[in-house]
Structures are given as structure tokens and as C-alpha cells.
Amino acid sequence: MSKGHQDLLTVRGVTKRFAVGDDEVEALAPVDLTIPRGEFVCMIGASGCGKSTLLRIIAGFEEPTTGQVSIDGKPVTGPGSDRGMVFQDYALFPWMTVRQNISFGPRQRHLPREQIDKTADEFVKMVGLERFADRYPNQLSGGMKQRVAIARVLANNANFLLMDEPFGALDALTREQLQNELLQIWKRTGVTTIFVTHSVEEAVLLADRVLVMSAGPGRIDSDFRIDLARPRDVSSPEFNALRRDIARRLTSHLVLAKA
Ligand SMILES: Nc1ncnc2c1ncn2[C@@H]1O[C@H](COP(=O)(O)OP(=O)(O)OP(=O)(O)O)[C@@H](O)[C@H]1O
Known about the structure:
Layout: H1 3-6, E1 7-20, E2 23-36, E3 40-45, H2 51-59, E4 66-71, E5 74-75, E6 83-87, H3 98-102, H4 104-108, H5 113-126, H6 142-155, E7 160-164, H7 172-189, E8 192-196, H8 200-206, E9 209-214, E10 219-225, H9 237-258
Parallel strand pairs: 3-8, 3-9, 6-7, 7-8
Antiparallel strand pairs: 1-2, 1-4, 4-5, 9-10
Helix pairs in contact: 5-6, 8-9
Bound molecules: adenosine-5'-triphosphate.
GO biological process, one term: quaternary ammonium group transport
Pfam family, one: ABC_tran
GO molecular function: ATP binding; ATP hydrolysis activity
């Protein structure tokens, strides 16, 4: 197999400018990025450096000003069920139960009834919500809602899980639990994952690779490979060395931005 076939996602020369009144914001300078199939990538960077913009362009919600995103060599021209997004604020359908939220994609695609039921069963179980399948989102905790959001993406056959600060609103204990569950799901499904976070520790805990972004205009500043075996020990010297290196990269930009 040629190298090109192993690369699921390529971002080539992607820039983004937003018009703000008579002015323009350069949200992304040319970004080049290749993410192989199955990789877990975290993006980290100061507020406003373009993380969400890049994620939304990959999702197809936003068009790049120049450049192109391709998946398996095919240009992305809009949203697709191959790419599912999970947001900090859950974005579930409040009028649907857990089960209905999770089976939304298969129902939209008019799959046969038995297949819809089977998929719903499988993914309700995968995120451990069997006892809550008939509840509505407002009857769930934040952690449960985020499990539903992840299951909804995966039940729709996505091979790309795009997560924008998904655990940012959760308490520390729930967050830790969800991080572990997400890693298990990722291992089990092999879904390629791009995860935006503000926490260096979370990035080093989860990712195969951490992209540090910097602002003015937004770009990928550095690309750290995290070769630590999982489960990772947050108190190990290797973990802390990586955490320190990444934090240094991040703060060097903050100091420059203020200068
Ligand atoms: N729709 C829009 N219209 C105008 N400017 C925008 C729009 N979306 C984003 N921007 C600007 O583009 C830049 C990048 O924003 P973006 O939300 O991608 O950053 P971010 O790194 O995700 O920030 P945060 O960590 O705070 O979520 C910012 O300067 C922002 O104000």
C-alpha cells in the first residue's frame, strides 16, 4: 500500500479569513497536516488561535478561504456522516430519548428497522447507558450526556470523531472517567480522533500526537509525538517531561503575544 492510502486526512494550505465589519480576521495561516487512520490527535493552544475553526473546516461546517481538506484523497465539500462532531455543550436533541438520539443517524439513512435497533442496542451498551436508554437529556448528568453524544457519532458510522473541548464542562472525577472510557472506545473502534483541549495533562494522557497551535494568525507551531504506553501514569518522569515541554511551548507564545 502506498503511503497516500494510509493517510486518512490531509489538510493542504488551509487558510481562513473572517470578515468582521469592514475588517478581516486572519484566523488561520496556511495549515498543512496529515493524520493517518486511527490516530488520536490532540490540539492545544491559547484562546483564539483557530482550533475550533480548523476543526469546523475539517468537519465541513466551514469552508477554507484557500487550500483544501481531503479524506482518502477526496476533497471535503461539506459535512458528512463519516465525520461526527462532539461539542462541550452536548448538542443533543432534547425531545429525543437517549436511544432515539443515538439511533438518529441510522434512522435518517432509512436503514431497516432491525438494523436500527441492533445499532441502538450496541452503542447504548458501548457507553454503558442501558438503564438510561429511555431517559431524555434533561434527566441525565453531564457525563451521561457526553456519552450519548459520542455514541450518536459512532452509531452513524463515523470514522472521524471531532471533539471540541468535550470534557471542559465536567467535574474532575467525571472527566477522568470519560477520558478512560473514550480511550477504550477509541481502541475498540479504531476511530480517528481529533480532540481540542485546554489541558496539557489531558492532551498527554490521551493523544498519540499533540499539536500545539499559536495565534496571530493561527497555525500549527509544533507537533509532539507521545510514545508512552497506555494506560499512562501521570506521575511518571516521562509523562511530566512531556507535559513540561508542551507547557513551555504554549507559554512561550503567551509571553510573545503580550510583549
Ligand atoms: N464566525 C466568525 N466570525 C468572525 N471571526 C471569527 C469567527 N469564528 C472565529 N473567529 C475568529 O477567528 C479566530 C479563531 O477563533 P477560534 O474559535 O477558531 O479559536 P479557538 O482556538 O478555538 O479559541 P477558543 O479556545 O477560545 O475556543 C478568533 O480571532 C475568532 O475571534
